[in-house]
Specification:
By secondary structure, the chain is α/β, with parallel strands linked by helices. The chain is built from 6 helices and 6 strands. The radius of gyration is 20 Å and the shape is globular.
Length: 214
């Protein structure tokens, strides 16, 4: 997966390698004196990977700081492993402080707080050229994989449903409009499943498709 038009670089399968990839993109932006910044995101469990530590080191070298927004979505689960079973620190954001990286912990279930925080930190990075770190505390509404089940988690705070209620009460959204939005994406998801199921199985001769010549 990638989105060249938005400068979204390819997403890789190995866990958290995006953190070291972001060092490269941020370095190029700094070298070219670009107005752009790099944004990298990952989960709380993935911060145990060395790529995450390397990102903190390389983003924060004195005099060579990188224009990088580092984010961690902390839902307190790494597949079936609870946060307490993996982390010794209280906040993951505290690890960024050790590298003199500006950091903060926010309520990631609050879209308004999240939006304003990201806006503030992006402005800080563009102004200073230095990295910033956001740890967003949020829910995990579905299991991560078959290892932890895929069913909806009923005892977690549903930020989408709750924000929908706030918008309706405030008069920015009607219940009928909300239902249409839900139905639209329900239909889109169903159609995507049907498309995949109807696709033919790959054939052996296709192994050389979409690779570099020779």
């Amino acid at each position: 997966y990638c989105y060249p038009e938005w400068n979204v670089v390819p997403v890789t399968s190995p866990i958290e390698t995006q953190y070291v990839m972001s060092i490269g993109t941020a370095h190029v932006q700094k070298r070219e004196k670009s107005k752009g910044i790099s944004i990298v995101t990952g989960g709380d469990a993935g911060t145990a990977e060395g790529d995450f530590a390397s990102c903190l080191v390389w983003a924060s070298r004195k005099g060579k700081e990188l224009p990088l927004l580092i984010t961690v979505q902390n839902n307190r689960w790494g597949i079936p492993t609870n946060f307490e079973g993996q982390h010794g620190e209280t906040n993951i954001a505290d690890r960024a402080k050790a590298f003199n990286i500006r950091s903060r912990v926010i309520n990631g279930n609050d879209p308004i707080e999240s939006y304003l925080t990201v806006q503030e930190e992006m402005e800080y990075i563009r102004k200073t050229g230095k990295p910033s770190f956001i740890e967003a505390r949020l829910s995990r509404l579905y299991g991560h994989s078959s290892a932890s089940g895929a069913n909806f988690v009923t005892d977690e705070y549903d930020c989408v449903r709750e924000f929908e209620k706030q918008l309706i009460v405030a008069g920015y959204l009607k219940e009928s409009e909300a239902k249409k939005i839900w139905q639209k994406y329900e239909d889109e998801g169903f159609q995507a499943q049907q498309t995949v199921r109807d696709e033919p199985s790959p054939q052996g001769e296709s192994i050389w498709d979409n690779i570099y010549a020779n």
